[in-house]
Amino acid sequence: MRFSIVGGTRLSGTVKISGAKNSVLKLMAMSLMANDRCVIRNVPRILDVQTMKGVIEALGARVEWHDDVMEITPPEHLGTEAPEELVRGMRASIQIMGPLLAKVGEVHIAQPGGCSIGHRPVDFHLRGFRAMGAEVEERYGYMRARADKLKGATVFLDFPSVGATENLMAAAALAEGTTVICNAAREPEIVDQQNFLNLMGAKVRGAGTGQIVVEGVKELAGVDYTVIPDRIEAGTMMVAAAITGGHVTLQDVEPDHLGFLVAKLREMGVSVEISRNQIDCYADRPIRGATVRSMPYPGFATDLQPSIAALASVAEGCSVLIETIYSNRFHYLEEMRKMGAKVIIEHSTAVIRGVDRLTGTNVCAPDLRGGAALVLCALAADGHTVVDNIELIDRGYEQFEQKLSGLGARIIRTE
Ligand code: EPZ
After folding, report:
1. Does the pLDDT at position 236 exceed 80?
2. Which of 143, 155, 179, 277 could cysteine-pair with 214, CB 3.0–4.6 Å?
3. What pLDDT, on the 0 to 100 scale, is given for residue 115?
4. Over the stretch 237-281, which tens digit does the pLDDT of each residue have?
5. Which residues contact residue 346 at a Cβ distance below 8 angstroms, ignoring those fewer than 6 apart?
6. Which ligand 1 atom sits nearest the alpha carbon of residue 90?
7. Whole-number Å distance between alpha carbons of 400 and 233
C-alpha cells in the first residue's frame, strides 16, 4: 500500500492525538498478570496493537476491542509460548516475558523483530531475569526462561533501556521481595506503567527517575485505566504544521512530555503555544537549521529524529543530527535525497543543508518513523509524491492520512 500526496498545502485546523503506542503495548502485556478483567482506554487503532492483541490471545487472554476501549480477561491457565510469526514482526512482543515469568514461571519466545533501525539485542532484559533467579536459555533464535518463583534483586542496566526497565518492573511486581532497577529509563511511558501496576495493587515507586524500587506482592487485580497521549504522534503533527507553514492545534496532548521538542522547534523559529492539554503550533517566519542529539528521556526522542530531519531539509542553513540510541537509523535520509534533500551521513551523524523546495517523487518507507518523515517531506514538496510500504507507518500512527487530510493535506491511500 502507498500514500499518494500532493504537496504545497498549508495545514490548518485541529487534530486529536491518540493514545501512546509505546505504552499501550506494555499495558496489554501487563494485563496478563491480573486476576481479573482489565479495561484499557484511549487505545489507538494501529497495527502494532493488533499484533499484540494476537500475541496475548494466543496465550489464552480474551480480548474485546471496541473503538478505543480494550477489555482483556486473562485465562485461568496462561499459555507460555508466544506465536513466532507475530513475535518476529514486533519487538514489543518481548514485553510478555516479564509478566509470564512472574505469573506462571515460564516463557518460550522467539527473538523479536521490529523496525530495521540497527542491532537491537535483548541482553539487558535477560540479564535482569537471571539476576532475579530465572534460568534463561538462548538457542537458534529462541529464548526459554523458567523460574519457580522470581526473587527480588538489584539490577544495573548498562543503558537506560525502555523495554528492559518495563519488563523488569513487571516481573518484579509479582516477585518475592524487593527489586531495585538502577539506571532505569525515565520515559513518560515508564511512569504510565508504574501507575497501571500500582492501580493493579503493585508497589512500584521511582518511575521517572533513574532508580525504580518494586516490592513484590502476591497478586494483582484487574483495573480500568486510560493510556497517556502519544508524544511521538504529537511531535510528528507539530512538524507537519511547521513544515507546511501552517497552523495546527493539537488536542488531548500532554505538553509536559514534549518539552525538548518544543524547545527545539522554537529554536528553529517555529511558534508553539501551550495550554493545559493543547498545543498550538504554527510557522509564520523562516525556519532555521539546528543541532539535534537524540538521547534517552528527557533528552530529544530518537523517534522524533526523522521528523526533525524532514523540517531541517527545508530549513535555512545547516542542521546536524547526532543519533546516540540506534546504530542505523538514517535509511530514510536516502529516500529524502531522492526528493532533493542535501544530506551527508557519517556514521551516526547526519548533516543536512536546507534547500528552498523539495520535489515530489517515488519513495519507500524504510521503517515506521522514517516513513512518517517522508510523508512530512511530501506535504511540503512541489508536486506529487508516492510513499510506498506504508504498512510500516500503519504500525504506529492511527488514521494518519485521515488526520492529515482533516487539516487540509492532499493525501490518499492506494493499493
Ligand atoms: C522503545 O524501544 C520504543 N519501542 C522505541 O520506539 C524507541 O525508539 C526506544 O524505546 C527508545 O526510546 C517501544 O516502546 C515498543 P531500548 P526499546 O530498550 O524498548 C539497546 C518506535 O518507533 N539495548 O530503550 O526496544 C538497544 O539496542 C520505536 O515507536 C541493548 O543493547 O528501546 C538500543 O540501542 C522504535 N540491549 C538502546 O539500548 C537490551 O537488552 C535503547 O533501546 C535492550 C536495549
Report:
1. yes
2. 179
3. 62
4. 999 999 999 999 999 999 999 999 999 999 999 999 999 999 999
5. none
6. 15
7. 9
User: Is 113's pLDDT higher than 80?
Assistant: no
- Ligand 1, residue 124: give the atom nearest the CA: 40
Instruction: Report the separation in Å between the CA atom of 345 and the middle of ligand 1, taken as the mean of its atom positions.
Output: 22
- Residue 77's identity, in one-letter code, is H
Residue 230 has which C-alpha cell?
502519544
Output the CATH code of domain 21-226: 3.65.10.10
Name the average pLDDT for the chain: 96
In tens, the pLDDT along 321-352 reads 999 999 889 999 999 999 999 999 999 999 99
CATH class of 2-17+229-414: alpha beta
Residues 6+ apart with CB under 8 A from 153: 128, 131, 132, 133, 179, 180
- Write the single-letter amino acid at 330: F
Whose CA is closest to atom 27 on ligand 1? 120
Q: Ligand 1 pocket: which residues have CB below 6 Å?
A: 21-22, 25, 91-92, 115, 120-125, 159, 161-164, 185, 302-303, 325-326, 368-369, 396
Specify the pTM: 0.97
Check if 2-17+229-414 and 21-226 are the same fold: yes
